[in-house]
Each structure stands twice: as C-alpha cells, then as structure tokens.
Design a protein that fits this description.
The chain is an alpha/beta fold and 236 residues long. The protein is 32% helix and 19% strand. The protein has helices at residues 25-33, 35-38, 71-79, 92-105, 117-121, 153-162, 176-187, 200-203, 213-220; strands spanning 60-65, 83-88, 110-113, 129-135, 163-173, 192-194, 226-232. Helix 1 packs across helix 4.
C-alpha cells in the first residue's frame, strides 16, 4: 500500500461531497458522542483483523461500501446479530444518519470507517470478508469522470482477494450504462463468477435483501434498477 512521508497510509483524492446540508443538533450530538465508539482506526502499518473490531467474535464479516444513510446496513445488522458489519462512508450527513439507526436499534455489531473505503480494503488480510455490498454508487455519467467510478479492475481484484471462497459481491445500480461498465469489469476478473442465469436474476433485488432509500427514489421516478451478484471462485 502506498505510504506518506510519515509512514502512514497515503491519502488519495476522494471525489464527491464530504458534507451536505447543515446537521441538526441531534445529529451533531451523535457525531460528537457516538462516532468514536464505532469508528475504525486503521493501523499505520500491517493488517487489520476485522473480527477484532467487535466485542464478540462474529461468525462472518460483511462490508458495505458507501452505505448512504445506513438503513440497509442497519437492517441487515439487526437481522444477523452474529455477523460483524463494516460500513464505509465519507459523507458526514450519511454517517450521522447511520449512527441514528445504530442507536435506535441498539446495534453492537456495526463499525464505521468515515473515509475512503480503499484505505480499509488495503489493510484487510486475504479472505477476511464473506460478503461485500456496493449499492447504487455514484455513476459519474460523464465520460471524462469514468475514472472516478469505484468498481474498476484494481478494486475488483482487491475485493476478490478479500472475499473468502464462496463469498459474495453484491452490486446494484439504476444507471444502465454504469451497470454495463461494472458488469464488464467484473466479468474480466477471473476470481469472480456472475451468478445470473436468467434476466430476472439481475432485474429483481435478491430475495431477503432489504431495500435502500436510494433504490426507493429510483423506482419512484420510474428508473429500473439492476442487481448483480458475483461469487468468489473456489481456490484451485
């Protein structure tokens, strides 16, 4: 992993907003009082054991990259208390909303990195994750911005390394061109196999998966959503 002059992780350019509208007092209080209890602090060198982040060793560790307001992550964490959930989101408003969900549901199995997900991915050991979600990422529709899209070849290779054999990468988008781009990249990653067998497999949200707020908005305005599931191939 690239390092800076102090020996710590090198900072990369992070596209998109860090904060939107001014936070209400209750949300600011959550950031001040609760974030430090669930925030992931990355080591300056070496690997991070994700299971050690939780008070009770989890059965599995699942990761959501760009969790938005955190409703999907919180719903899954409540349904699977024996799974450790890691969420990455640099947007302050989204982090504060997720903290509200964590507090409301009394969740002890969620940890947050309020920074670039790549910094975490590069600190995790091989096979550390059972599931990775990337749901409705920014499609960066202008061609000159395509390099900002997250699911490029390098990040797919990194995610594949971190998934255990049989582990899942689940992706969703309402932007068809970006969806084709992500699917094409994933199909070129030899460690991943696409699980779709029929059109319905990528036109409907996988059974048992909660909806996201963004998905609801997309469907409400008539935009079809597309869902791609990839499995980490067994090691030969």
């Amino acid at each position: 992993m690239p390092e800076n002059a102090t020996g710590g992780p090198a900072r990369r350019r992070l596209y998109g907003r860090k904060q939107g509208h001014r936070l209400r007092p209750a949300r600011r209080a959550l950031l001040a009082d609760m974030l430090e209890r669930v925030r992931i602090v990355l080591p300056e060198a070496g690997a991070l054991d994700p299971a050690a982040l939780f008070p009770t060793p989890p059965r599995e560790v699942w990761l959501e990259i760009g969790f938005g307001s955190g409703e999907h992550m919180a719903e899954l964490a409540a349904a699977h208390p024996d799974v450790g959930f890691i969420g990455c989101e640099p947007f302050v408003n989204g982090v504060s909303a997720a903290l509200g969900e964590i507090a409301r549901r009394g969740l002890a199995n969620v940890r947050i990195l309020d920074d670039d997900a790549r910094l975490l991915l590069e600190r995790l050991p091989d096979g550390a994750l059972e599931r990775v979600y990337l749901l409705f990422p920014d499609p960066w529709p202008k061609k000159r911005h395509h390099r900002r899209r997250f699911l490029d070849a390098a990040n797919l290779r990194l995610i594949a390394r971190l998934l255990r054999p049989g582990g899942l990468l689940q992706v969703a988008t309402d932007h068809m061109e970006c969806g084709r781009w992500m699917l094409a990249n994933a199909l070129r990653e030899p460690a991943l196999e696409w699980l779709a067998e029929r059109a319905a497999d990528w036109k409907a949200r996988p059974a048992g998966e909660p909806a996201t707020r963004y998905e609801g908005k997309a469907l409400g305005r008539g935009s079809p959503c597309h869902y791609f599931r990839f499995r980490r191939r067994q090691v030969a």
